[in-house]
Sequence to fold (425 residues):
Amino acid sequence: MRPLPCLATALAAALMAAPRAQEATTVLSPADEARVADARERRGEHYAERLALFLEELPRVQPGGVVFIGDSITEHFPLDRAFPGRNVVNRGISGDHITGVTERIDVSAGLLSPERVYLMIGINDITWGQQATPEQLGADFGDLLDALAAACGGAEITVQSILPVATRWSTDNPNVRALNGIIRGHAERLGLRYLDLHPRMASASGELRAEYTGDGVHLTLAGYGAWLEAITASGEFFDVARALAPHWRETAGTSHRIDALDPPREGEYGGSRGPDQLIVYTDDYGHATTGTNPWGTEATVIDGAVTHTGGNDSVIPAGGYVVSGHGAAAHWISTVLLPGTRVALDGLTVRAQPPPESEMSTPRRLQHLVSRVIESLPDLAGERLEQARGILADLQTLRADDSHVSPETADAISRRVAALIAPPE
Fold:
């Protein structure tokens, strides 16, 4: 796939944010207050909170930036870490739908006077919607793109495909593909750029790749890395990887603190898992399942190895346990506790040891090597840093068509990675 033009080069000075000053609190006008109240009534508390934030930020957003619009997949995109100090604006709202974006296109894009816009929306309409057909949703999407094109006539607009889904959501993939076909047609009608992310992020069976998701819908940091690869040129992706490296190392580390072990069961969702918490549920919990809410992910551990990753309210295996997380902890589980990983509980810490590369599938192995290179970047300089640049570029090339990567080729680049991260003599 041909990468899109370099974000940093194309926007140059326009991407540089103004120096950060003490930011005054913006008081919403009565009209804006009424708009937020109406949104709360019709679209829920989170939508209203994000809408209010967008309205409050309007006077402080510099024109000529890059705007990402979407749902939870966009809201949780670590754009501030990937593009530090640049005028890149996140306008994602978890749980949003096509019509929800249309309603807020002014405050999310038009009034920001962006130079570039990236849009991805629609998966909630398919997985959580009112059983509308792809044709009906396609009509809504056409209205959205008409509004976006009118609001941002001078911007370069990239309409991204809805990502495939996996695990229990896989039956929705035919509708995802059908709607994407309609979206492509609307983008072409308006002369907008359409970016199909499926060749990069879908498995051979058409599902979202296992290494890119924990629950089958939302992305791990590796998934966001693949998305960044798709929207940046090869040279710029290395700079993005360097910026993300500390966060990547933190997220992909092999240990994580346990916030609670077998907590008391209470509330609507009895699992008692709070924001960003990591909980372990064992036989002593006294219930057949974890009882957790749908907003997180879990890993089942039997005989010291992960047997399944994804989902919530998991069955607690006899003699085993479930590691459950929300928010940042869920991202760690999705990234680190993949099937086959060896796991041990060490006091109040979960420790993980990935399986040998020889036991990994080729896609997972290549992603594992990408992670090792990115995690090593803060420790490299000079010639070794340039070596890392070359290795990461070669890994990008291999991952673009990993079904044809031979074991010998994978072994060869694995040796290069091992030599790169080995302590210098």
Remarks:
- Residues 357-421 form one domain.
